[in-house]
Amino acid sequence: MQLEQVGPYLWRIPRDAERGMRVPGLVVADERLIASIRSDAALEQLANGATLPGIVRAALAMPDIHQGYGLPVGGVVATDAVHGVISPGAIGFDINCGVRLVKSSVDAADIAARMERLVDALYAAIPTGVGSRGALTLDARTLDEVLARGAAWAVERGYGVPDDLERIESGGCLDGADPGKVSDRARERGRRQLGTLGSGNHFLEVQVVDEVEDARAAEALGLHVGQAMVMIHTGSRGLGHQVCTDYLDVAGKALRRHGISVPDRQLACAPNDSPEARDYLGAMRAAANFAFANRQLLTHWARDVFARVLGADARELAVVYDVAHNIAKVEEHVVDGVVRRLTVHRKGATRAFPGQPVIVPGDMGRYSYLLVGTEAAMRETFGSTCHGAGRVLSRSAAVRAARGRRVDLELRERGVVARATGKDALAEEMPEAYKDVKDVVDVVHRFGISLRVARLRPLGVIKG
DNA sequence: ATGTAC
Description:
The chain is α+β, with helices and mostly antiparallel strands. The chain has helices at about 30-40, 40-50, 110, 115-125, 140-150, 150-155, 160-165, 185-190, 215-220, 235-255, 275-310, 375-380, 395-400, 405-415, 425-430, 435-445; strands at about 5, 10-15, 25-30, 60-65, 75-80, 85, 100-105, 205-210, 225-235, 270, 320-325, 325-335, 340-345, 350, 355-360, 370-375, 385, 415-420, 450-464. Strand 4 (about 60-65) and strand 5 form a beta hairpin. It binds one DNA strand through helix 10.
């Protein structure tokens, strides 16, 4: 794949009309990261993304890009909201997978002696693992409300406070959600999964503010060094997965009906002004609302656990921000001096509007970051930035590398109490399975599409 | 990511 450097942190795949590219590909990276990206099939997938009808400016990739389904994880594709297309594969299976950061009113040093108890209690209170079922079972009408209202539904039911909603992307509820476009099968999978963590890289961590880089921004968000925090990384579980599966099929059929050709069936798509696209958008927004409600419920149970284990005062867990990294949003952006309405696909990419908190989780042994979005992100990346570290070992390679080792004890030596459900969950997710998130964050910070505010270090983690 | 194969 031809790749030319066009700036200190920007690389271009030139537009190749023969392969159907309508625009170039652009990768945000430095020399070191681009070396590992070069050998990855992700660049082919990014070039494929550049063929989507109605794509604007470029198919973009963040520095944590890696191979995904259709479009690489770390990809950002903006299409004309009327004359372009929407592609379920360019959003991903875990619709509104995202991250929530919550601040506590206690210092980590004051709860260090009770960390084992705290993590055990969180692990007992929050269902984890593949296929895990929640404390709730929703009837059809209640599920409709969750799908239509998102986190607002949870807060109305007492799972949180109205202030929480002010600190969630889009207020924790996407307008235009259409529960009627979510299949019975997806609904059945979701019915017992609200308030569950899931598996894989999903987690709930107790963290500490390790270092503050932007003192003013940190103070404005109420953060200080030494403060205990909670970070939650999960999405729409089996419901969102089924919505994606259902609409990949719809989009596959739409290709023929609308005379669209794509180089990879995984990039199947439908014109934004077609019934197929409207249906998918309605279902995707409903799944996104399910995910917002999911993170809200986990926050509620974390509050209960903090109060029970640490005392009533510790119940005060306030949302700092909650942001999606697998989603499509219809947004206005300035392109060549003209305001345009675009369908922005972010797949493993985080919205980074000016002043907006951005949460970038790393691996469970090292650290995560809080950043803030910028005007540069609006100019360069349709208001987007990276979403995490990215794997360096496959799951199976990680399990092989961990054979004969005790990852739980290794984490304990690094000061992290870990509890997990799956047999190989800790091995698959061990720190050395991931790139150092610091390298990824350095690039987006230097390029200017989001700026470091604080670094967070894990103290306790529960996983599926 | 995922009732990790309907």
